[in-house]
Q: What sequence folds into this?
């Protein structure tokens, strides 16, 4: 429901035509799949210090789809980091635990969305499959 309201507001604010609407939605769906693929690969690889690489790669792949993909990448990345802050608050209290990691994740997300090479964050020895 929130996604639908967000898309509706985007169309009103940006004046997206009906033809561009379909393109935007298609890009957003493809970008969501790109983000899911990066997350799945990260879980499968289970490789130490590869988190930032997969953040950057998911955002990079999604943003290359177009404005809809970049929008989906930002929404998903922000939701992930915000939900992580909430769960950290319950686990650790207001200790600031994970705040720096969250900032680093967001920097990697922004790096990828801006079109910069995600391999900047690639850890040595990560299998070439990823």
A:
């Amino acid at each position: 429901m929130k996604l639908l309201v967000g898309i509706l507001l985007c169309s009103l604010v940006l004046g997206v035509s009906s033809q561009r609407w379909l393109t935007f939605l298609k890009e957003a769906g493809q970008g969501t799949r790109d983000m899911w693929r990066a997350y799945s690969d990260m879980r499968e690889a289970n490789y130490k210090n590869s988190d930032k690489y997969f953040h950057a790669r998911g955002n990079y792949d999604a943003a290359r789809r177009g404005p809809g993909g970049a929008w989906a990448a930002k929404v998903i990345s922000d939701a992930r980091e915000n939900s992580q802050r909430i769960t950290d608050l319950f686990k650790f209290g207001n200790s600031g635990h994970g705040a720096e990691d969250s900032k680093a994740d967001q920097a990697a997300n922004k790096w990828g969305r801006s079109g910069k090479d995600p391999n900047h964050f690639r850890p040595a020895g990560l299998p070439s499959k990823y």
The mean pLDDT is 86.
